[in-house]
Amino acid sequence: MCELFAMSALIPTRVRFSFGIFSRRGGHTGDHTDGWGVALFDGLDCRLLREPMPAAESSCAKYLAAHHIRSNLVISHIRKATGGLPISLANTHPFEREVNGSRIVFAHRGQFAGIHEDPAFSLGIDRPIGQTDSEYAFCHLLRGIRHGGVLDAQRLKPQLDALRARGVANIVLSDGRQLIAYADKDMHLLRRHCPRVSEDDIHDLGGVTFGGFCGDQDVVLIASVPLTDEAAWEELPPGTLVVAKHGVVVELLR
Amino acid sequence: MCELFAMSALIPTRVRFSFGIFSRRGGHTGDHTDGWGVALFDGLDCRLLREPMPAAESSCAKYLAAHHIRSNLVISHIRKATGGLPISLANTHPFEREVNGSRIVFAHRGQFAGIHEDPAFSLGIDRPIGQTDSEYAFCHLLRGIRHGGVLDAQRLKPQLDALRARGVANIVLSDGRQLIAYADKDMHLLRRHCPRVSEDDIHDLGGVTFGGFCGDQDVVLIASVPLTDEAAWEELPPGTLVVAKHGVVVELLR
Fold first, then answer.
1. Beta strands at B248-253 and A95-99: parallel, antiparallel or unpaired
2. A23 touches chain B (CB under 8 A)
């Protein structure tokens, strides 16, 4: 099964990734993954780094582990290929599309077997580049997002509920302004307030290290597997939708 | 002025970039650029690496200079910000959109002052994320590309001619299957056949090094400034459109 991770922070922070730790938390070593990807928002655009290979073999993942890239909204995914699909760049999360001048980024943990043939999940103008049911489901969601004009959690929830009824739908997505997380099975939330941090403080959240900011920091983390042993990780009940902005949960729909 | 570079090759090859050399050829040092970006196709999807900072200061550009990423279709751009626009990720080339399941990548050298207000260059569903006239012109071209359903050079040329009449339009774009280059001022073409190369041969093309392939290789390079001193670089007359596939020029429209 794939691993999902997402972060919303008040102050843009230097984020460093260690995919080895993510993978181990998910019960497999970094050698046994089929791809990994990270979207790091910078304003309304984002850096999207992906590789269709184990992070342990990827020079790009090593680069990410060695460097800090500044962001306050991050979505990450580790892929374990299922259903005989090819291991390719086009099948590697996160996926992204532009809607109305906003970059929409999407990652998914679960599956929607046969969704390609289901008329209830038809597509609009957005079409998959790869073969995953995840990207197909994203393109289906985009139809509704384009219809509404913007990414809106209230409007999106019925579509996400329908996807959950159709398969397994742990989903994170963002337009750079807000982080939306939708829980099916195994989605966890951690809220953390870090008062009066200094530029030199490094915060280790188990696979993600961040620092390089001054002042009061707020952080919301979403993860399929809790990254630390803290009891503060809340397991989200199936069907829960969380909206985070600037490191704070602003909406929680059940 | 910005620098453009693109490559089409028969055999996917390990490409290594040295932005310092690109910048010097363009008459400025790597310290005096406002951003750089590279799209490396891998099948129908691509890796898109961009940074809104001088390549000389970018750890990501250093990573690219140190590692070989395999690709047979590459588009690259070095940005010098003009018109008082912010130096931001969203204003950094190349730009990309998905059309009909294809990733379309675009980079531009020139300007189209006031194009945002010109009703002759209206937009369809694709909207700019940043503020550049380049991305705006790309979104305008996408309207025609979506109308035709695919990226087609014959259909595209009148649109490109209209852009050239409106400003300065040195443009490269690709859907992963073909490389299209459109010349206004200062666009150059190099065709090279490399017979019976071995895995260990390294080919240095002045800022781009490639190797790691066996057999007969064909390469087409497009550059705003010739990367080497070879006389074989052809200056493309204004209005020329070149289509390259698998390292060979397959169409040349004037």
1. unpaired
2. no
Q: Helix or strand or coil: residue B160?
A: helix
* Averaged pLDDT of chain B: 88
What is the ipTM for the molecules in this complex? 0.92
Q: Using CA atoms, how far apart are residues A129 and B229, in angstroms rounded to an integer?
A: 39
What stretches of chain B show up as alpha helix (H) in DSSP? 19-25, 59-66, 133-148, 153-166
Q: Give B113's contacts (C-beta < 8 A, 6+ positions apart).
A: B83, B133, B167
Q: Which residue has the tokens 């429209």?
A: B253
Q: How far apart are CA B107 and CA B249, in angstroms?
A: 19
A126 touches chain B (CB under 8 A): yes
Token look-up 């005096």 returns B32
| Residue A254, helix vs strand vs coil | coil
Q: Is the pLDDT at B1 greater than 60, yes or no?
A: no
Mutation site for B-interface testing, chosen from A51, A60, A98 by largest number of B Cβ within 10 Å: A98
Q: Is B97 on the interface with A (CB under 8 A)?
A: yes
* B2 tagged catalytic: yes
* Residues A174, A197 contacting (CB under 8 angstroms): no
Q: Would the pLDDT of B80 be above 70?
A: yes
Other residues' Cβ atoms within 10 Å of the Cβ of residue B66? 11
Question: What pTM does this model have?
Answer: 0.93
- pLDDT per residue over A11-35, tens digit each? 888 777 766 666 666 555 655 678 8
Kindly state whether B98 is in contact with chain A, defined as any CB-CB distance less than 8 angstroms.
Answer: yes
**Residue A93's pLDDT is what?**
95
Q: What does the alpha-carbon distance between residue A193 and residue A198 come to, in Å, rounded to a whole number?
A: 14
Q: How far apart are the first and last CA of chain A?
A: 25
**Contact, A80 vs A87, CB < 8 A?**
no
B247: DSSP letter: T
Which pLDDT belongs to residue A20?
66
Interchain CB distance below 8 Å, A125 and B125: yes
Contact A90 B44 (CB under 8 A): yes
Q: Do A90 and B45 touch (CB under 8 A)?
A: yes
pLDDT beyond 50 at A1: no
The verdict on a CB contact (< 8 Å) between B88 and A45 is: yes
Cβ atoms of A129 and A86 closer than 8 Å: no
